[in-house]
Design brief:
Blueprint (H helix, E strand, L loop, with lengths): L1 E6 L2 H16 L23 E6 L6 E2 L4 E2 L6 E5 L6 E6 L5 E13 L4 E7 L7 E7 L3 E2 L3 E3 L3 H18 L7 H17 L19 H15 L14 H14 L5 H20 L8 H13 L2 H11 L4 H7 L1 H11 L7 H23 L15 H16 L3 H14 L18 H4 L8 H17 L4
Parallel strand pairs: 4-11
Antiparallel strand pairs: 1-2, 3-5, 5-8, 6-7, 6-9, 7-8, 9-10, 9-11
Helix pairs in contact: 2-15, 3-4, 3-5, 3-15, 4-5, 5-6, 5-7, 7-8, 7-10, 9-10, 10-11, 11-12, 12-13, 12-15, 13-15
Length: 463
Protein backbone atom coordinates (compact mmCIF):
# COMPACT_ATOMS: atom_id res chain seq x y z
CA UNK A 1 0.00 0.00 0.00
CA UNK A 2 1.12 3.58 -0.69
CA UNK A 3 0.79 6.34 1.90
CA UNK A 4 0.19 9.99 1.13
CA UNK A 5 0.69 12.76 3.72
CA UNK A 6 -1.53 15.79 3.64
CA UNK A 7 -0.66 18.99 5.53
CA UNK A 8 -3.54 21.17 6.69
CA UNK A 9 -1.97 24.62 6.55
CA UNK A 10 -3.26 27.68 8.34
CA UNK A 11 -5.20 28.91 5.32
CA UNK A 12 -7.26 25.75 5.43
CA UNK A 13 -7.90 26.21 9.14
CA UNK A 14 -8.94 29.82 8.59
CA UNK A 15 -11.37 28.72 5.91
CA UNK A 16 -12.83 26.16 8.28
CA UNK A 17 -13.31 28.77 11.02
CA UNK A 18 -15.03 31.14 8.62
CA UNK A 19 -17.37 28.43 7.40
CA UNK A 20 -18.25 27.53 10.99
CA UNK A 21 -19.01 31.14 11.96
CA UNK A 22 -21.20 31.58 8.90
CA UNK A 23 -23.05 28.41 9.73
CA UNK A 24 -23.82 29.49 13.30
CA UNK A 25 -24.94 32.95 12.22
CA UNK A 26 -27.56 31.48 9.95
CA UNK A 27 -29.35 29.72 12.87
CA UNK A 28 -31.69 32.53 13.83
CA UNK A 29 -29.21 35.22 14.82
CA UNK A 30 -26.97 37.70 13.12
CA UNK A 31 -23.27 37.42 13.42
CA UNK A 32 -23.19 40.63 15.43
CA UNK A 33 -25.34 39.05 18.15
CA UNK A 34 -23.09 36.05 18.58
CA UNK A 35 -20.29 35.93 21.15
CA UNK A 36 -17.11 35.06 19.32
CA UNK A 37 -13.63 34.07 20.41
CA UNK A 38 -10.51 35.40 18.76
CA UNK A 39 -7.96 32.84 17.58
CA UNK A 40 -4.31 33.51 16.96
CA UNK A 41 -2.55 31.19 14.54
CA UNK A 42 0.91 29.93 15.41
CA UNK A 43 3.22 31.01 12.61
CA UNK A 44 5.42 27.96 13.31
CA UNK A 45 2.52 25.48 12.91
CA UNK A 46 3.61 22.75 10.51
CA UNK A 47 0.27 21.12 9.90
CA UNK A 48 -1.43 17.82 10.76
CA UNK A 49 -0.14 14.60 9.24
CA UNK A 50 -2.80 12.18 7.97
CA UNK A 51 -1.99 8.70 6.64
CA UNK A 52 -4.28 7.43 3.87
CA UNK A 53 -3.90 3.99 2.36
CA UNK A 54 -4.25 3.88 -1.40
CA UNK A 55 -4.85 0.52 -3.17
CA UNK A 56 -1.93 -0.69 -5.23
CA UNK A 57 -2.39 -0.02 -8.92
CA UNK A 58 -1.94 -3.04 -11.21
CA UNK A 59 -0.10 -2.16 -14.43
CA UNK A 60 -2.19 -2.43 -17.59
CA UNK A 61 0.78 -3.94 -19.44
CA UNK A 62 1.72 -7.36 -18.10
CA UNK A 63 5.16 -8.88 -18.57
CA UNK A 64 7.40 -11.59 -17.21
CA UNK A 65 9.26 -9.50 -14.63
CA UNK A 66 12.30 -11.79 -14.55
CA UNK A 67 12.84 -11.67 -18.29
CA UNK A 68 13.48 -13.44 -21.57
CA UNK A 69 16.34 -15.14 -23.35
CA UNK A 70 17.63 -13.31 -26.43
CA UNK A 71 16.24 -15.95 -28.80
CA UNK A 72 13.01 -16.61 -26.89
CA UNK A 73 9.53 -15.73 -28.12
CA UNK A 74 8.55 -12.56 -26.26
CA UNK A 75 5.00 -11.34 -25.66
CA UNK A 76 3.13 -8.81 -23.52
CA UNK A 77 -0.50 -8.79 -22.44
CA UNK A 78 -2.34 -5.45 -22.66
CA UNK A 79 -5.55 -5.07 -20.63
CA UNK A 80 -8.28 -2.90 -22.09
CA UNK A 81 -10.64 -2.30 -24.99
CA UNK A 82 -9.96 -0.14 -28.06
CA UNK A 83 -6.29 0.39 -27.31
CA UNK A 84 -3.89 2.31 -29.54
CA UNK A 85 -2.26 0.24 -32.24
CA UNK A 86 1.34 0.52 -31.07
CA UNK A 87 3.47 -0.12 -28.03
CA UNK A 88 7.08 0.76 -27.29
CA UNK A 89 9.97 -0.97 -25.51
CA UNK A 90 12.24 1.49 -23.69
CA UNK A 91 15.69 1.00 -22.25
CA UNK A 92 15.08 1.46 -18.51
CA UNK A 93 18.45 3.13 -17.94
CA UNK A 94 18.59 5.58 -20.84
CA UNK A 95 14.86 5.96 -21.53
CA UNK A 96 15.57 5.44 -25.23
CA UNK A 97 12.93 3.68 -27.33
CA UNK A 98 14.54 0.53 -28.71
CA UNK A 99 11.53 -1.23 -30.25
CA UNK A 100 8.10 -0.36 -31.61
CA UNK A 101 5.50 -3.10 -31.93
CA UNK A 102 1.83 -3.58 -32.74
CA UNK A 103 -0.91 -4.42 -30.23
CA UNK A 104 -2.85 -7.27 -31.83
CA UNK A 105 -5.39 -10.03 -31.20
CA UNK A 106 -7.89 -8.25 -28.97
CA UNK A 107 -10.14 -10.81 -27.23
CA UNK A 108 -12.80 -10.73 -24.54
CA UNK A 109 -11.89 -12.87 -21.53
CA UNK A 110 -15.22 -14.08 -20.18
CA UNK A 111 -13.69 -15.67 -17.08
CA UNK A 112 -12.11 -12.37 -16.01
CA UNK A 113 -14.66 -10.04 -17.65
CA UNK A 114 -11.98 -8.03 -19.40
CA UNK A 115 -10.53 -7.37 -22.84
CA UNK A 116 -7.00 -8.63 -23.37
CA UNK A 117 -4.59 -7.91 -26.19
CA UNK A 118 -1.21 -9.30 -27.15
CA UNK A 119 1.93 -7.62 -28.39
CA UNK A 120 5.05 -9.44 -29.58
CA UNK A 121 8.65 -8.24 -29.58
CA UNK A 122 10.55 -11.46 -30.31
CA UNK A 123 12.85 -9.62 -32.73
CA UNK A 124 14.39 -7.64 -29.86
CA UNK A 125 17.41 -9.71 -28.84
CA UNK A 126 19.77 -7.07 -27.43
CA UNK A 127 20.63 -7.81 -23.81
CA UNK A 128 19.60 -5.17 -21.31
CA UNK A 129 16.98 -3.90 -18.86
CA UNK A 130 13.70 -2.67 -20.36
CA UNK A 131 10.06 -1.79 -19.80
CA UNK A 132 7.07 -1.49 -22.12
CA UNK A 133 4.91 1.61 -22.70
CA UNK A 134 1.68 2.47 -24.48
CA UNK A 135 -0.19 5.76 -24.60
CA UNK A 136 -3.37 4.36 -23.04
CA UNK A 137 -1.87 2.15 -20.32
CA UNK A 138 1.40 3.72 -19.26
CA UNK A 139 4.38 1.57 -18.27
CA UNK A 140 4.93 -2.07 -17.39
CA UNK A 141 7.23 -3.39 -14.72
CA UNK A 142 10.87 -3.73 -15.73
CA UNK A 143 12.20 -6.94 -17.28
CA UNK A 144 15.52 -8.07 -18.68
CA UNK A 145 16.81 -9.82 -21.78
CA UNK A 146 19.82 -11.99 -20.95
CA UNK A 147 21.38 -15.40 -21.35
CA UNK A 148 20.86 -18.31 -18.98
CA UNK A 149 17.65 -17.24 -17.26
CA UNK A 150 16.26 -20.76 -16.99
CA UNK A 151 19.56 -22.20 -15.76
CA UNK A 152 19.62 -19.54 -13.03
CA UNK A 153 16.00 -20.20 -12.08
CA UNK A 154 16.54 -23.96 -12.00
CA UNK A 155 19.49 -23.57 -9.62
CA UNK A 156 17.56 -21.09 -7.48
CA UNK A 157 14.51 -23.35 -7.27
CA UNK A 158 16.70 -26.33 -6.36
CA UNK A 159 18.44 -24.40 -3.57
CA UNK A 160 15.12 -23.28 -2.08
CA UNK A 161 13.80 -26.82 -2.24
CA UNK A 162 16.95 -28.19 -0.61
CA UNK A 163 16.65 -25.63 2.21
CA UNK A 164 13.01 -26.63 2.78
CA UNK A 165 13.95 -30.31 2.88
CA UNK A 166 16.67 -29.61 5.45
CA UNK A 167 14.10 -27.99 7.76
CA UNK A 168 11.75 -30.98 7.80
CA UNK A 169 11.25 -32.45 11.24
CA UNK A 170 8.81 -34.58 13.21
CA UNK A 171 6.18 -36.76 11.60
CA UNK A 172 6.73 -36.85 7.85
CA UNK A 173 4.07 -36.71 5.16
CA UNK A 174 4.99 -39.90 3.28
CA UNK A 175 2.91 -39.20 0.22
CA UNK A 176 4.04 -35.59 -0.16
CA UNK A 177 7.72 -36.47 0.32
CA UNK A 178 7.39 -39.29 -2.21
CA UNK A 179 5.83 -36.93 -4.76
CA UNK A 180 8.71 -34.47 -4.29
CA UNK A 181 11.28 -37.25 -4.79
CA UNK A 182 9.30 -38.54 -7.79
CA UNK A 183 9.33 -35.12 -9.52
CA UNK A 184 13.07 -34.66 -8.90
CA UNK A 185 13.89 -38.11 -10.27
CA UNK A 186 11.66 -37.53 -13.29
CA UNK A 187 13.32 -34.17 -14.01
CA UNK A 188 16.78 -35.73 -13.80
CA UNK A 189 15.89 -38.72 -15.94
CA UNK A 190 14.40 -36.63 -18.75
CA UNK A 191 16.78 -33.66 -18.68
CA UNK A 192 20.07 -34.69 -17.07
CA UNK A 193 21.97 -31.79 -18.63
CA UNK A 194 19.92 -29.24 -16.69
CA UNK A 195 21.35 -30.12 -13.29
CA UNK A 196 24.70 -29.40 -11.67
CA UNK A 197 26.79 -30.89 -8.89
CA UNK A 198 27.86 -27.59 -7.32
CA UNK A 199 24.86 -26.09 -5.51
CA UNK A 200 26.59 -26.00 -2.13
CA UNK A 201 25.10 -29.04 -0.41
CA UNK A 202 27.16 -31.55 1.56
CA UNK A 203 27.28 -33.97 -1.38
CA UNK A 204 28.29 -31.36 -3.98
CA UNK A 205 31.29 -32.46 -6.02
CA UNK A 206 30.67 -36.19 -5.62
CA UNK A 207 30.00 -36.70 -9.33
CA UNK A 208 26.23 -37.05 -8.83
CA UNK A 209 23.91 -34.11 -9.63
CA UNK A 210 22.75 -32.50 -6.40
CA UNK A 211 19.09 -32.97 -7.32
CA UNK A 212 19.58 -36.75 -7.32
CA UNK A 213 21.45 -36.63 -4.02
CA UNK A 214 18.51 -34.79 -2.49
CA UNK A 215 16.00 -37.29 -3.88
CA UNK A 216 18.09 -39.97 -2.19
CA UNK A 217 18.06 -37.98 1.08
CA UNK A 218 14.27 -37.71 0.90
CA UNK A 219 13.90 -41.46 0.49
CA UNK A 220 16.50 -42.22 3.17
CA UNK A 221 14.61 -39.95 5.53
CA UNK A 222 11.44 -41.94 4.96
CA UNK A 223 13.31 -45.20 5.50
CA UNK A 224 14.88 -44.08 8.77
CA UNK A 225 11.98 -42.12 10.31
CA UNK A 226 9.37 -43.84 12.42
CA UNK A 227 6.72 -42.88 9.91
CA UNK A 228 4.68 -45.94 10.88
CA UNK A 229 5.00 -48.43 13.74
CA UNK A 230 7.12 -51.36 12.56
CA UNK A 231 4.21 -53.79 12.23
CA UNK A 232 2.32 -51.28 10.09
CA UNK A 233 5.29 -49.97 8.09
CA UNK A 234 4.11 -51.24 4.73
CA UNK A 235 0.44 -52.02 5.35
CA UNK A 236 -0.81 -48.46 5.70
CA UNK A 237 -2.43 -46.60 2.83
CA UNK A 238 0.81 -45.08 1.57
CA UNK A 239 2.82 -48.31 1.60
CA UNK A 240 2.33 -49.12 -2.10
CA UNK A 241 3.10 -45.56 -3.13
CA UNK A 242 6.32 -45.73 -1.12
CA UNK A 243 7.14 -49.02 -2.87
CA UNK A 244 6.75 -47.26 -6.22
CA UNK A 245 9.24 -44.52 -5.30
CA UNK A 246 11.73 -47.04 -3.90
CA UNK A 247 11.61 -48.94 -7.18
CA UNK A 248 11.95 -45.73 -9.17
CA UNK A 249 15.00 -44.51 -7.27
CA UNK A 250 16.58 -47.95 -7.62
CA UNK A 251 16.52 -47.46 -11.39
CA UNK A 252 17.94 -43.91 -11.12
CA UNK A 253 20.86 -45.12 -8.98
CA UNK A 254 21.53 -48.33 -10.88
CA UNK A 255 24.62 -46.75 -12.49
CA UNK A 256 25.42 -44.27 -9.69
CA UNK A 257 25.37 -46.26 -6.45
CA UNK A 258 24.64 -49.97 -6.95
CA UNK A 259 24.50 -50.82 -3.23
CA UNK A 260 21.87 -48.15 -2.57
CA UNK A 261 20.01 -49.15 -5.73
CA UNK A 262 19.88 -52.83 -4.75
CA UNK A 263 18.78 -51.99 -1.21
CA UNK A 264 15.93 -49.78 -2.44
CA UNK A 265 14.72 -52.40 -4.89
CA UNK A 266 14.69 -55.11 -2.19
CA UNK A 267 12.77 -52.80 0.14
CA UNK A 268 10.31 -51.97 -2.66
CA UNK A 269 9.59 -55.67 -3.22
CA UNK A 270 9.24 -56.22 0.54
CA UNK A 271 6.78 -53.34 0.74
CA UNK A 272 4.74 -54.78 -2.14
CA UNK A 273 4.64 -58.23 -0.55
CA UNK A 274 3.76 -56.84 2.88
CA UNK A 275 0.88 -54.76 1.54
CA UNK A 276 -0.62 -57.72 -0.32
CA UNK A 277 -0.05 -60.09 2.58
CA UNK A 278 -2.14 -57.80 4.79
CA UNK A 279 -4.78 -57.19 2.11
CA UNK A 280 -3.54 -53.66 1.56
CA UNK A 281 -3.19 -54.17 -2.18
CA UNK A 282 -5.51 -52.55 -4.69
CA UNK A 283 -5.52 -49.34 -2.65
CA UNK A 284 -7.11 -46.90 -5.08
CA UNK A 285 -4.63 -46.75 -7.98
CA UNK A 286 -1.43 -46.95 -5.92
CA UNK A 287 -1.14 -50.61 -6.88
CA UNK A 288 -0.97 -49.72 -10.58
CA UNK A 289 1.77 -47.16 -10.07
CA UNK A 290 3.79 -49.49 -7.83
CA UNK A 291 3.41 -52.36 -10.30
CA UNK A 292 4.62 -50.15 -13.17
CA UNK A 293 7.75 -49.06 -11.29
CA UNK A 294 8.52 -52.57 -10.06
CA UNK A 295 8.02 -54.10 -13.50
CA UNK A 296 10.35 -51.49 -14.99
CA UNK A 297 12.97 -52.26 -12.33
CA UNK A 298 12.68 -56.07 -12.34
CA UNK A 299 10.84 -57.32 -15.42
CA UNK A 300 8.98 -59.79 -13.16
CA UNK A 301 5.74 -61.08 -14.71
CA UNK A 302 3.58 -60.74 -11.59
CA UNK A 303 3.81 -56.95 -11.79
CA UNK A 304 2.98 -56.97 -15.50
CA UNK A 305 -0.15 -59.01 -14.77
CA UNK A 306 -1.39 -56.26 -12.45
CA UNK A 307 -0.80 -53.67 -15.16
CA UNK A 308 -2.70 -55.72 -17.75
CA UNK A 309 -5.66 -55.90 -15.39
CA UNK A 310 -5.78 -52.09 -15.27
CA UNK A 311 -5.17 -51.60 -18.98
CA UNK A 312 -8.28 -53.69 -19.72
CA UNK A 313 -10.58 -51.62 -17.51
CA UNK A 314 -13.38 -49.82 -19.33
CA UNK A 315 -12.61 -46.59 -17.47
CA UNK A 316 -8.86 -46.72 -18.11
CA UNK A 317 -8.81 -43.71 -20.46
CA UNK A 318 -10.78 -41.68 -17.97
CA UNK A 319 -8.32 -42.67 -15.23
CA UNK A 320 -5.39 -41.83 -17.51
CA UNK A 321 -6.66 -38.24 -17.78
CA UNK A 322 -7.77 -37.78 -14.17
CA UNK A 323 -5.62 -39.97 -11.88
CA UNK A 324 -1.93 -39.11 -11.53
CA UNK A 325 -1.01 -42.65 -10.44
CA UNK A 326 -2.45 -44.11 -13.64
CA UNK A 327 -0.92 -41.37 -15.79
CA UNK A 328 2.57 -41.71 -14.29
CA UNK A 329 2.39 -45.51 -14.26
CA UNK A 330 1.52 -45.41 -17.96
CA UNK A 331 4.45 -43.07 -18.69
CA UNK A 332 6.73 -45.49 -16.82
CA UNK A 333 5.41 -48.38 -18.92
CA UNK A 334 6.30 -46.46 -22.09
CA UNK A 335 9.87 -46.04 -20.82
CA UNK A 336 10.46 -49.76 -20.22
CA UNK A 337 13.16 -51.18 -22.48
CA UNK A 338 12.21 -54.81 -21.81
CA UNK A 339 9.10 -56.82 -22.72
CA UNK A 340 5.99 -54.69 -23.19
CA UNK A 341 2.78 -55.13 -25.13
CA UNK A 342 3.11 -53.17 -28.41
CA UNK A 343 -0.63 -52.68 -28.77
CA UNK A 344 -0.82 -51.25 -25.26
CA UNK A 345 2.14 -48.97 -25.95
CA UNK A 346 0.39 -47.62 -29.04
CA UNK A 347 -2.77 -47.04 -27.02
CA UNK A 348 -0.82 -45.19 -24.33
CA UNK A 349 1.01 -43.01 -26.85
CA UNK A 350 -2.29 -42.06 -28.46
CA UNK A 351 -3.76 -41.20 -25.05
CA UNK A 352 -0.68 -39.13 -24.15
CA UNK A 353 -0.74 -37.16 -27.40
CA UNK A 354 -4.48 -36.53 -27.18
CA UNK A 355 -4.14 -35.20 -23.64
CA UNK A 356 -1.20 -33.00 -24.67
CA UNK A 357 -3.13 -31.63 -27.66
CA UNK A 358 -6.11 -30.81 -25.45
CA UNK A 359 -3.83 -28.87 -23.09
CA UNK A 360 -2.15 -27.09 -26.01
CA UNK A 361 -5.55 -26.19 -27.43
CA UNK A 362 -6.67 -24.56 -24.19
CA UNK A 363 -3.42 -22.58 -24.03
CA UNK A 364 -3.67 -21.35 -27.63
CA UNK A 365 -7.24 -20.15 -27.02
CA UNK A 366 -6.34 -18.32 -23.81
CA UNK A 367 -5.79 -14.58 -23.82
CA UNK A 368 -2.89 -15.25 -21.43
CA UNK A 369 -1.49 -18.18 -23.49
CA UNK A 370 -1.96 -20.68 -20.64
CA UNK A 371 -4.03 -23.83 -20.16
CA UNK A 372 -5.47 -22.66 -16.84
CA UNK A 373 -5.29 -19.33 -15.00
CA UNK A 374 -4.52 -21.09 -11.72
CA UNK A 375 -5.60 -18.23 -9.46
CA UNK A 376 -8.25 -20.24 -7.59
CA UNK A 377 -6.33 -23.46 -6.91
CA UNK A 378 -2.80 -22.18 -6.39
CA UNK A 379 -1.72 -23.33 -9.89
CA UNK A 380 -2.24 -27.04 -9.11
CA UNK A 381 -4.09 -27.84 -12.35
CA UNK A 382 -1.68 -25.70 -14.37
CA UNK A 383 1.33 -27.53 -12.94
CA UNK A 384 -0.35 -30.87 -13.63
CA UNK A 385 -1.00 -29.81 -17.23
CA UNK A 386 2.60 -28.74 -17.65
CA UNK A 387 3.89 -32.01 -16.23
CA UNK A 388 1.97 -33.81 -18.97
CA UNK A 389 3.16 -31.41 -21.68
CA UNK A 390 6.78 -31.57 -20.48
CA UNK A 391 6.72 -35.38 -20.57
CA UNK A 392 5.15 -35.39 -24.03
CA UNK A 393 7.70 -32.87 -25.27
CA UNK A 394 10.45 -35.17 -24.03
CA UNK A 395 8.97 -38.26 -25.70
CA UNK A 396 8.24 -36.51 -29.01
CA UNK A 397 9.95 -33.11 -29.27
CA UNK A 398 7.52 -30.44 -30.41
CA UNK A 399 8.60 -26.79 -30.64
CA UNK A 400 5.00 -25.68 -30.03
CA UNK A 401 4.94 -27.59 -26.73
CA UNK A 402 8.25 -26.06 -25.65
CA UNK A 403 6.89 -22.58 -26.40
CA UNK A 404 3.71 -23.30 -24.42
CA UNK A 405 5.75 -24.47 -21.43
CA UNK A 406 7.81 -21.28 -21.67
CA UNK A 407 4.63 -19.18 -21.85
CA UNK A 408 3.49 -20.73 -18.58
CA UNK A 409 6.78 -19.75 -16.95
CA UNK A 410 6.26 -16.18 -18.23
CA UNK A 411 2.74 -16.24 -16.78
CA UNK A 412 3.96 -17.38 -13.37
CA UNK A 413 6.65 -14.67 -13.35
CA UNK A 414 4.28 -11.76 -13.91
CA UNK A 415 2.35 -12.01 -17.17
CA UNK A 416 -0.85 -12.79 -15.28
CA UNK A 417 -4.00 -10.85 -14.28
CA UNK A 418 -2.55 -9.87 -10.90
CA UNK A 419 0.79 -8.73 -12.39
CA UNK A 420 2.51 -10.76 -9.65
CA UNK A 421 5.79 -12.62 -9.98
CA UNK A 422 4.91 -15.84 -8.14
CA UNK A 423 8.38 -17.35 -8.62
CA UNK A 424 11.13 -15.04 -7.33
CA UNK A 425 11.34 -12.38 -4.63
CA UNK A 426 13.58 -9.83 -6.33
CA UNK A 427 11.25 -7.94 -8.68
CA UNK A 428 9.02 -4.95 -8.04
CA UNK A 429 5.84 -7.00 -8.38
CA UNK A 430 7.09 -10.05 -6.46
CA UNK A 431 4.73 -12.31 -4.53
CA UNK A 432 6.37 -11.14 -1.32
CA UNK A 433 5.60 -7.48 -2.06
CA UNK A 434 2.05 -8.41 -3.10
CA UNK A 435 1.33 -10.51 -0.01
CA UNK A 436 0.86 -13.68 -2.09
CA UNK A 437 2.27 -17.19 -1.69
CA UNK A 438 5.22 -18.04 -3.90
CA UNK A 439 5.50 -21.31 -5.79
CA UNK A 440 9.05 -21.97 -4.56
CA UNK A 441 7.77 -21.75 -0.98
CA UNK A 442 5.81 -25.00 -1.47
CA UNK A 443 8.19 -27.99 -1.90
CA UNK A 444 5.76 -30.06 -3.96
CA UNK A 445 4.89 -27.22 -6.34
CA UNK A 446 8.52 -26.18 -6.48
CA UNK A 447 9.52 -29.71 -7.53
CA UNK A 448 7.05 -29.53 -10.43
CA UNK A 449 8.35 -26.06 -11.33
CA UNK A 450 11.86 -27.53 -11.44
CA UNK A 451 10.58 -30.22 -13.80
CA UNK A 452 9.11 -27.55 -16.11
CA UNK A 453 12.27 -25.46 -15.99
CA UNK A 454 14.50 -28.46 -16.67
CA UNK A 455 13.31 -28.91 -20.23
CA UNK A 456 13.93 -25.21 -20.94
CA UNK A 457 17.31 -25.12 -19.21
CA UNK A 458 18.36 -28.40 -20.80
CA UNK A 459 17.67 -27.22 -24.35
CA UNK A 460 19.40 -23.82 -23.96
CA UNK A 461 16.31 -22.09 -25.35
CA UNK A 462 17.10 -18.96 -23.31
CA UNK A 463 20.47 -18.28 -24.93
Amino acid sequence: MSSYTFYLKKLVIMGLLLSLSGSVASCGASSAEIQTEHWELDENFEGTEVEIEVPKQIPGILTDQVGFGPASDKALVFKGEKLPGKFFILDSESGETVYTGEIVKSSYNEELDEYDNLGYFSDLDKKGRYHAYSDALGESYDFSIRDGIYEELTDQACKMLFDAMEKESGQRDVRKDCRVADALLMAYEMNKGAFSDDLGIQESGNGIPDIVDKARDEVKGLLSDDTYPEDEKYTAKDGLYFAAILAKISVAFSDLDTDFSDDCLQRAQNAWDSCHEHDAGDVETDEFYAAAQLYRATGVTQYHDVLLKFFKREDFRELFNSDDNVFMGSVSYLSISGDTDLEICNMLMKALLQRAEEIAGRASNSTYLVSDLGLDDGFEKMLSDMKCLTITDHVIYNHEYTTIIEDHIHYLMGRNPKAVNFVTRDTEGSYENAGEEGIMEDPEKNALLIFMLSILAGTGIDN
